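Hey L., structure's done. Input below.
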Amino acid sequence: MSIQILTSAPGGYVNIKPSDIVSADHWRMTDDVRVRFFNGDFVIVSGDTASRLRRLGIISTMLK
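Output:
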């Protein structure tokens, strides 16, 4: 399963596989969230996108 999310990356949208996510944490005292992958890459997503990922149960256990 792959999900399309809006990120700060060039081009805006990326497709991610939830199984590739290794961690998620808050980014620089903002609502933005850094989502890290097993291959070492990461994307910064907005608070709205992070809320969507939380509701889907993808990063709910990673963020306090």
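Strands lie at 3-6, 13-16, 21-26, 33-37, 42-45. The mean pLDDT is 86.

-- N.
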